[in-house]
Amino acid sequence: MFIVSIIWGVAAPVIKFTLHDFPPLIFLSYRFAISSIIALIVFSVTKERFSKKGKAVEGMIGYSLLAVPVALGLLFFGFDKTTSLTGNVLTAMTPMATVIAGVLLLREHVTGIERTGLTLAFAGTLVIIFGPLWHDGLGTDTSSLGSLEGNLLVIAAIIIDALSALLVKTTLRTGVSASSLTHLSFLIGFLAILPFALVTHGLPQIMSTITSAPITAHLGVWYMAILSGTLAYWLRNQAIKSIEVSEAVVFTYLYPLWAAPLSVYWLGEKITTPFLLGGSIIAVGVIIAEHKKRRNKKKR
């Protein structure tokens, strides 16, 4: 999950940068097309057979639709309207939504140490989110927060992603492999998002946009498709299979720490004192939740 946190932390500025050349629907369709080709190659080599059991099928389809076209669609449209830093910090709220959903729906256990770490990390996230208000004053300068519409879209993506994380847990219990679920989700996601892209932009415009885009934009899409897509989702699904959801998502709090340098030096976004303070609190929270938890397990 630490590797996933780096990949997805870097993904925020990559998304923001690449959206300058590719509108959200074209970006998503292009990205999912690459991941789908990878999936077809893997399936042709492994000769994977999927379970035909009702719960397994429902779980695979449900997860594929929620995690890929819906959650990622909302996320990309949100990042198109807000800053990379703000969007990335908002996604750091995912653990709270996921942990609460895990406790309510899966009856997962959250230890006192985890609660302490999550609370500290959540407090750090709040410092970053509301820092611009304290720094600029209410109603004087809201540009650093990005647009309200964009932020709401990112929050909606967080909620959907939390539900999809729980579906991973229940679906993998039916015997579906993490690799198969990951590849299938991008195939279904591509088939689901493509019609919207065709209706919105039309095939000629889609092809023209892709062929005329600079190489840097294509590299952004390939990063999102291969590293942030196929690899990162497989690693996350594999991790969730072996540990509780609440343990896996704590690393989400690290996203802003990886995104900040790129957002500032690459995209030219401004980093504030509240961001540094909040990032430090987040780091302390993650260290407490993970280090002390592992030390207690060794004592047992």
Protein model, in words:
There is one protein chain. The protein has 300 residues and is mostly helical. The chain has one domain. It is 80% helix and 0% strand. Helix 6 (112-136) runs antiparallel to helix 13 (273-299). Residues 138-142 have low confidence and may be disordered.
Strand content: under 5%
Report the helical percentage. over 70%
Q: Can you write the helix and strand succession as a string?
A: HHHHHHHHHHHHH
Estimated radius of gyration: 19 Å
Q: What does the overall shape look like?
A: globular
Name the poorly predicted regions.
138-142
Q: What's the β-strand tally?
A: 0
Mean pLDDT across all residues, rounded?
80
Q: Termini distance?
A: 23 Å
- Please give the count of helices: 13
* Overall number of structural domains: 1
- Structural class by SSE content: mainly alpha
Q: What is the makeup of the main sheet?
A: none
Protein name: EamA domain-containing protein
Subcellular location: Cell membrane
Pfam family, one: EamA
Membrane topology: Multi-pass membrane protein
